[in-house]
Each structure stands twice: as structure tokens, then as C-alpha cells.
User: Fold L-threonylcarbamoyladenylate synthase from Rhodocytophaga rosea.
Amino acid sequence: MTEEIKTASEAIKNGEVILYPTDTVWGMGCDVRNQQAVNKILSIKKRPASQPLVVMIAEIGQLYDYVQKVPDIAWDIVEYAEKPLTVIYPKGKNVAPNLLASDGSIAVQLNRDEFCQKLIQKCGRAITFTSACQHLQPKPATLPDVEIDIVNAVDHVVNLPVVDKTKNTVRLSTIIRLELNGQIAFLRK
Assistant:
């Protein structure tokens, strides 16, 4: 795993798009500050630019790096989530402009997958996440599930053996919108 983390982090730092396993599905990712790489992912997915990608962090403290004001309730919600959780915060910062929604909001996921955490730490910053499929198509649970056009379009494919057999099934994260006043709206349960 160490060599794959090194290679994938170098690819990300060089502005490349990677294909990698997460705790939910196989995804595409890049440096959160690289607007061209984000655009490349949106193009590969054929996803509207009005639907930004998720910012994936490895540690809860990284929220300060990417969210202008973290609502107090966020800390407990994120820390104690029992399954993958993506939270949309009112105002983002320190990312490529195309990672922010038109209202300035930002989607952030604290990832608990060992590979993802180590990759993010090695990169020294968050990375993007979106499922490795075209917009509105089935999400890939395994690398063989990823369409060949997607595999050929990215710059680097992470090559890791599947140790956890639960990773062979699609698991979607819960998505909530969290307002500064603590109001919560569930967008996907």
C-alpha cells in the first residue's frame, strides 16, 4: 500500500486525476486546488459544472481548512457518524472555484478508509471525490465495475488488492446540508 500511496500522491500533486478505492465506491480524485483537474473529472463524468465534487478529508480538524465557519453541531455529527457521511456546509474556502456550488457551499466528507486517509495525509491536503462513473450511471463497487472509458481517461489507476470483502458492494454516503444555525436537511439517507 505504501508504494501506491506514494505514486498516487505524486500524480495528484502533478495535477493528474486518479482512480481509487474508497469506503463507499471506486472514485476519481485530484488536488482540491487544481481547477483544471477538477474540470477534467467533470468532463470524464459528463457531469454538469453546477454539481460540484466532494472534498474528502482525512481528519476532522481539516474542516477548518475548507469551511469558512463550521457550525458547532458539525463536530459531533461528523465524529460520531456510523456510516460514510457527506456534509454540505454554507461557505467553502481554499479550493478551486469549481468545487463550490453557486451559493458558495461546499460538500465535505471525512473518510475513514485507511488508504484514503494515508493518501490525503501524504498529499498534505484534501482531495476530491466523485464516483468513477458517468453522471447518473451505476456506481462501481470494484475496479472491474468501472467502465473502460473512465479507466482510460484518468491519469493513474490505484492498484490495491481487495482485503475487505464488504468493499465489493456499493455503499452510498448519507448526504446532509448543515446551516450555520445548526439546521439539518437530509438530502440522501
The radius of gyration is 15 Å.
